[in-house]
C-alpha cells in the first residue's frame, strides 16, 4: 500500500472493471464546494496573462465557475460536443494500463475527492481540482485532444516495449508541467502548474529553473521530481507542433534512446535550445519551495 491515501491494487468495492465510479455529486458537502470556489477564485487572480489562450478559452467554454464542484452530468455534454472527450470519476491513481486505455478512448479520469481546506497549497495526489480545473480545459483544444488520445495509444504500446518511464516523462513535461511560446511570451498549459497558485508564478517568473525548447528524446531522458517545483520546464512552439511529434512512430525514438543515460533535473546540455538558463541548482535553492 503506497503512502498515498487513494491508491488501490484492484478496483475498490463499487468501482467498475475499468475503475470508474459514480461522481455522486449530491454527496459533496458545502465545505467541499467552498474549497473548489476558493481554489478557482485564487487561480483566476493569477492566471490571466500567465495561462495559455487554449487553457483560458477552455475554462470559459466549460463554465467551471457556476459555483462549487462541477457536476460531470452537466460538464460532459459540453466537453463531448467540443472534442469527443468525457471526464470519468475514479477513486484515485489507477494502474498505467487502465489510465492509457481511458485516454485512448477519449475518457479523462479524474479523482472524485477534493483536498481539505488545510491542504490548499499542496497535495501529492491528483484531486478533482487538479484534474478538472488543471487538465480538462485543455481537452477542449482539438490539437491537444488529439495529443492526449495519441498519448494513450502510445502508452499501451510503450508498456509492451518496456518504455513506460520514458513515456511518463513525456506526460510529466508536457501535460503536467508544460510551457508554450506565444506572441505574448511564455505561457502555461501544464495542469500541475496551472492548478497551483505558487508554481503558476514560479514556472514563468522565477530565475532558478532552466527553460529549454521541447525536444522529444531530450524530454524522454530527463528525470523529474514529484515533490517540489520543477528545475526544468520544456517549452513547445505550439500545441499543434506537440501533436505532430506524437503522431509519428515512436519505435525509432525508443531504439535511439536505448543505452542513453538519463539526464538529471538541473542539467543543461550543449545542444539544448536554452530559453532561460537557471541561476542556481536545485541544491543551492535549498530544496522544497
Ligand atoms: N491515474 N487517476 C490517474 N491519474 C493520472 O494522472 C495517472 C494515473 N495513473 C498513471 C499516471 N497518471 C501516470 O503514470 C502516467 O504517466 C501514465
Ligand atoms: Fe495530472
From TrEMBL:
Check the UniProt entry and state the signal peptide residues, or none.
none
Keywords in UniProt for this one?
Iron, Metal-binding, Monooxygenase, Oxidoreductase, Phenylalanine catabolism
What's the Enzyme Commission number for this chain?
Answer: 1.14.16.1
Cofactor(s), by name: Fe(2+)
Give me the residues that bind Fe cation, please. Answer: 130, 135, 176
Q: Which reaction does it catalyse?
A: (6R)-L-erythro-5,6,7,8-tetrahydrobiopterin + L-phenylalanine + O2 = (4aS,6R)-4a-hydroxy-L-erythro-5,6,7,8-tetrahydrobiopterin + L-tyrosine
What's this protein's family per the entry? Belongs to the biopterin-dependent aromatic amino acid hydroxylase family.
Q: What is this protein called?
A: Phenylalanine-4-hydroxylase
Organism lineage reads as:
Bacteria, Pseudomonadati, Pseudomonadota, Alphaproteobacteria, Caulobacterales
Amino acid at each position: 500500500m503506497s503512502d498515498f491515501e487513494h491508491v488501490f491494487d484492484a478496483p475498490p468495492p463499487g468501482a467498475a472493471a475499468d475503475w470508474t465510479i459514480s461522481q455522486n455529486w449530491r454527496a459533496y458537502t458545502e465545505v467541499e464546494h467552498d474549497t473548489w470556489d476558493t481554489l478557482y477564485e485564487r487561480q483566476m487572480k493569477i492566471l490571466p496573462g500567465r495561462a495559455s489562450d487554449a487553457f483560458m478559452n477552455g475554462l470559459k467554454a466549460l463554465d467551471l465557475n457556476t459555483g462549487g464542484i462541477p457536476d460531470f452530468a452537466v460538464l460532459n455534454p459540453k466537453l463531448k460536443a467540443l472534442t469527443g472527450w468525457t471526464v470519468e470519476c475514479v477513486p484515485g491513481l489507477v494502474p498505467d494500463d487502465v489510465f492509457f486505455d481511458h485516454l485512448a478512448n477519449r475518457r479523462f479520469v479524474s479523482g472524485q475527492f477534493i483536498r481539505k481546506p488545510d491542504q490548499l497549497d499542496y497535495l501529492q495526489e491528483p484531486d478533482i481540482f487538479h484534474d478538472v480545473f488543471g487538465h480538462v480545459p485543455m481537452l477542449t483544444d482539438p490539437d491537444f485532444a488529439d495529443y492526449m488520445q495519441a498519448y494513450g495509444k502510445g502508452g499501451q504500446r510503450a508498456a509492451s516495449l518496456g518504455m513506460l518511464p520514458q513515456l511518463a516523462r513525456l506526460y510529466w513535461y508536457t501535460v503536467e508541467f508544460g510551457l508554450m511560446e506565444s506572441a505574448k511570451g511564455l505561457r502555461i498549459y501544464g495542469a500541475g502548474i496551472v492548478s497551483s497558485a505558487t508554481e503558476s508564478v514560479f514556472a514563468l517568473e522565477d530565475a532558478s529553473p532552466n527553460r529549454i525548447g521541447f525536444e522529444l528524446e531530450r524530454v524522454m531522458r530527463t528525470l523529474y521530481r514529484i515533490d517540489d517545483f520543477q528545475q526544468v520546464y520544456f517549452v513547445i512552439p505550439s500545441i499543434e507542433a506537440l501533436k505532430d511529434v506524437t503522431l509519428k512512430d515512436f519505435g525509432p525514438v525508443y531504439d535511439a534512446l536505448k543505452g542513453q543515460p538519463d539526464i538529471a533535473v538541473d542539467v543543461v546540455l550543449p545542444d539544448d535550445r536554452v530559453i532561460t538558463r537557471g541561476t542556481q541548482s536545485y541544491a543551492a535553492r535549498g530544496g522544497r519551495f
